[in-house]
Task: structure prediction
Amino acid sequence: MMKITSGIFAILLFSHIGVANAVTLNRVEAQMVKQVTDDEPKARALLKKVVNINSGSMNFEGVKKVGDIFAHELKQLGFSTKWIDGKAFNRSGHLFAERLGKANSQKKPPKILMIGHLDTVFSKDSAVQKYIEIDDTYVKGPGIIDMKGGDVIIVYALKALKDAGILDQFSIQVVMTGDEEKRGRPLDIAAKVLIDSAKWADIALGFENGDGDPKTAVVSRRGYTGWQLAVTGKPAHSSQIFREDMGYGAIYETARILNSFRTQLSNEPNLTFNPGLIVGGTQAELDTGSAKAKGYGKQNVIAQTTKVSGDLRALSPQQQEKAKKAMRKIVANHLPHTSATITFEPGYPPMEPSDGNNKLLKIYDDASRDLGFGPVKAVDPRRAGAADISFSAKHVDMAIDGLGLMGHSSHTDDETADIRTLASQTKRAVLLMYRLLNR
Ligand SMILES: [Zn+2]
Result:
């Protein structure tokens, strides 16, 4: 690709970007970067509009409304759009959009999957509902970085490519799910569009907020699965505990199991497991759906039952299987007169580290440097939660996530965007995609 060296382009670029190393952009790149700058007020207006619509995962109407707005935006760019109804998995649904490229004689258009989500963790009765400008740098709002900002970046990156006449050189599918924050069940139906599109695509780009730092992007994410532990003991007067015919009760058995998990498995890199809720006694009820528990038990009675729910995160399916096996073995090693079972839920697969993903990161890193925005490194997978791209990553040659709007405190009432990154992240995405044409 031709690099710009002439003074006239350099001057032109300084005025757009204000950074010295921007001269490494070519003419088309510089034009697209300028387009993103010009479109910034419109992008912010779109962001404000969608943040001001509540779209908590269980607010089906709100999710659909945000989906309709993005469908409209994508149609303007020549995409065909479709709403995938979520009845079958008890959620609102997903937005699917497609725009096929025009193959020329030399090469086929690269197939790219761009991933966003429409829902947020903020329910209809959440205390925060609005887009609030704090100053020139910070804007607060529910779901602003996770991830309505990323969705807006998708739209305006595509617009810059279209305005430069480049968009026809790609084949693109956009999937914006309506249940990323609270995935519908059955999982295989809820995540089907992510898997199908990934099988179609060569490259997957995720516009989540990553760890919120523009110096990083995500090339690996740990998989996630939930587990439930159910333990029973022999009830009797507490004074008889430890007798050969009475045993230890459900609570001691639970303590043994959890402590063994910790002592035997907690040193393994990238593996974590967390008991998040526990209840035990004579009666114990635990509901994972509402994340609530109820218990009853007296100090002088040996505990009859214990329930625990927790999670397990691992970097590869092999690591996950190995951990499950070790946990099952610990569980099976019962104290006298107790029994226990552990069950694992189907979960999110891991996004495994790969050469393809690293190659994509390198292109992104170079693009960022050439824009004068500095280097981009991989996020420590320990710091990246499971996300939609986890379902897609293993079906494509290359995948990267964390290309969205940056900021801090996502999932809290203080969720805040560094609004300056709306344009800068869009520029990075545009250059990344453009350079994929000539990789
Ligand atoms: Zn998200």
User: Anything to note?
Assistant: Residues 117, 146-147, 180, 208, 387 surround zinc ion (CB under 6 Å). Residues 131 and 318 are 43 Å apart (CA to CA). The mean pLDDT is 93.
